[in-house]
């Protein structure tokens, strides 16, 4: 049930992000469009450090996973875990819709090739971490004697959830740094033209 809730919140975030992209005011639209056009012009020529890109990806995604895991330590964190899932969905929905609105099918294709490879790993990871965090927060406050005996085992399991989350983040970072840019370079000429 918790996986279903997490997926539902992610899908709501995607839908809201897509709707929001349609209703931006013209000034925000122009500024973001100008930034993207500069990015598309400079990307193929600019060299970037893969180690720095890997560190940034690991930090960005690791922060999200770490915060979600930490929020699972208390009941009060449950709404914020779901908020983090919603924000991740919102960013995917907004990006895809904005690129489609302004660049047509080339923009949509670009959003797919730039986000999909790492998202195949990251999105299930976020759903897994969010469900595990909510489950731990709910079960950690049971007061029956049987649960109190199992508490140490639950903490070890929850520590393993963090370890799995960090492995997911590392794999996501590697894909984002070494695989996604190859696909982006193939689509980039169509975006500029």
Could you characterize what this model shows?
There is one protein chain. The chain is mainly alpha-helical and 193 residues long. The chain has one domain (2-192). Helix content is 88%, strand content 0%. It is built from five helices and no strands. Helix 3 packs across helix 4.
The proportion of residues in beta strands is: under 5%
**Major beta-sheet overview:** none
What is the count of DSSP helices, taking H or I runs of 4+ residues? 5
Overall strand count: 0
Give the overall form.
globular
What's this, in brief?
The chain is mostly helical.
Can you tag this structure with a few keywords?
single chain; 193 residues; mainly alpha; 0% strand
Write the layout of secondary structure elements.
Layout: H1 2-22, H2 26-42, H3 50-71, H4 78-139, H5 145-192
């Amino acid at each position: 049930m918790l996986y279903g809730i997490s997926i539902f919140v992610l899908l709501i975030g995607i839908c809201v992000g897509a709707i929001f992209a349609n209703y931006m005011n013209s000034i925000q639209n122009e500024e973001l469009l100008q930034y993207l056009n500069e990015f598309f012009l400079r990307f193929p020529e600019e060299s970037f450090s893969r180690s720095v890109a890997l560190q940034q990806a690991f930090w960005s995604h690791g922060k999200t996973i770490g915060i979600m895991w930490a929020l699972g330590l208390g009941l009060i964190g449950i709404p914020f875990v779901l908020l983090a899932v919603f924000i991740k969905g919102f960013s995917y929905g907004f990006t895809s819709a904005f690129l489609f609105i302004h660049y047509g099918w080339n923009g949509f294709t670009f959003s797919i090739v730039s986000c999909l490879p790492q998202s195949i790993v990251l999105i299930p990871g976020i759903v897994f971490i969010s469900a595990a965090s909510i489950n731990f927060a709910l079960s950690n406050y049971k007061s029956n004697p049987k649960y109190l005996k199992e508490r140490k085992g639950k903490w070890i399991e929850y520590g393993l959830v963090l370890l799995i989350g960090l492995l997911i983040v590392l794999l996501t970072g590697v894909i984002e740094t070494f695989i996604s840019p190859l696909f982006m370079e193939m689509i980039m000429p169509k975006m500029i033209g």
